[in-house]
Amino acid sequence: MAKANQPKPLVGQELLDKVKQLDHLSKEEKARECGYYTLTKNGVERVNMMKFLNALIDAEGIELDSTSNGQGRGGRSASYRISVQSNHNLLIGSAYTKKMGLKPGDEFEITLGRKHIHLKQLGVDEEE
């Protein structure tokens, strides 16, 4: 908890601007200067790097969680392009499955064409 003499941690654009001003400092010093520290009972200062880094991620608008709670500017939008990974897998990200309303455990039938892959969801009427 913040003490009366301890500043409230910066967030959003204010945090990003302050971090840019402090580019000459270490990341721990930046976190402290932005208010991400606490004082222990013995008066020892502890920098909270995890909260600081999470606040930076939120301020940049990067969405790491699979659930969105409506805070922040949101994450990257779907590009509708994927690449074959080094292990030869194709990964369809959560942005697409969320947009389609898919849930864990939903099953698909795969049909391969010459240069396309067709997915047909099993257990769903053709009308959908």
TrEMBL record:
Coiled coil: none annotated. InterPro entries: AbrB-like, SpoVT-AbrB_dom. Keywords: DNA-binding. The keyword Nucleus does not apply. One of its GO terms (molecular function) is DNA-binding transcription repressor activity. It comes from the Bacteria. GO terms for cellular component: protein-DNA complex. Pfam families: AbrB-like (PF14250). Residues 79-124 form the SpoVT-AbrB domain. This is Transcriptional regulator AbrB. It comes from Hyella patelloides LEGE 07179. The gene is abrB.
